[in-house]
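Example S7 (structure tokens).
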């Protein structure tokens, strides 16, 4: 008999302080506070059984309770975990302790300042976590024209700003057409799915460092999104782009007949991922 694994816990991280774009988690994006887009993405997942919002932002707590009073648990984040120097994994571990989390259930870390994700991303990541028997799964996107081979150093020690290759001796690695660049990817901020043991730093033989919470290097997996599928808001430009994309999605969905639905709730019997 196959045992159904426990559903995942979604921990949504939302710090009040932001120097790049103040109050970004509560700013309106396509007519809705930014963080609510992430909450709604978690609610739409078939694999999430519990949703928690870790924050020090009182306004965001009020918004979450007003819009999803029975669906989202609030974890009050202490000041030392809400500073510029606090790490995301430390804040997520604090949430696990506060929630008395079941260690056999996987954890999904979501950023509240990411209102744009492709549909189904959370389930894709949790499915991959189980399929690959990985310690963690992170979403990535192609770097596009911002490829590392096209990076340079600019030597400002002389009268002219001299351009030097970022690596090696040949500028642009001798490649001048984008289609000739080798594939390269960058974390896009869409999701991190983890075994609880990885997040709590309980897996042996993991190299210490800021990314130790992702588990062993040979047990980290990826899901790949298309370029621009995820918008991580850190600036005014990001906000405008996210707003435009979401409004376009709403216009497109309005042209397709929709069947009546009821408000989403976390699914306590979901079993798309196993640890």
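Recovered sequence:
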């Amino acid at each position: 008999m196959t045992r159904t694994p426990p559903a995942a816990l979604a921990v949504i991280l939302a710090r009040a302080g932001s120097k790049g774009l103040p109050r970004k988690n509560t700013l309106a994006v396509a007519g809705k506070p930014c963080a609510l887009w992430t909450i709604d993405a978690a609610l739409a997942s078939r694999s999430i059984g519990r949703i928690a919002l870790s924050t020090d932002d009182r306004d965001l707590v009020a918004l979450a309770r007003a819009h999803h009073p029975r669906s989202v648990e609030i974890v009050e984040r202490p000041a030392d975990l809400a500073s510029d120097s606090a790490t995301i994994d430390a804040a997520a571990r604090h949430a696990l302790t506060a929630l008395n989390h079941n260690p056999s259930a996987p954890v999904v870390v979501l950023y509240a300042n990411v209102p744009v994700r492709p549909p189904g991303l959370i389930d894709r990541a949790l499915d991959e976590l189980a399929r690959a028997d990985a310690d963690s799964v992170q979403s990535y996107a192609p770097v596009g024209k911002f490829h590392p081979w096209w990076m340079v150093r600019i030597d400002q020690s002389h009268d002219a700003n001299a351009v030097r290759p970022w690596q090696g001796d040949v500028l642009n690695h001798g490649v001048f057409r984008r289609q000739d660049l080798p594939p390269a990817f960058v974390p896009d901020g869409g999701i991190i799915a983890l075994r609880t043991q990885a997040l709590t730093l309980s897996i042996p033989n993991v190299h210490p460092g800021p990314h130790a919470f992702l588990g062993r290097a040979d047990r980290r997996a990826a899901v790949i999104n298309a370029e621009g599928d995820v918008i991580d808001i850190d600036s005014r430009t990001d906000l405008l782009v996210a707003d435009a994309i979401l409004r376009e999605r709403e216009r497109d969905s309005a042209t397709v007949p929709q069947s009546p639905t009821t408000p989403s709730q976390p699914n306590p019997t979901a079993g798309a991922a196993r640890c």
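Notes on this example. Residues 8-142+185-254 form a domain with the Spore Coat Polysaccharide Biosynthesis Protein SpsA; Chain A fold (CATH 3.90.550.10).
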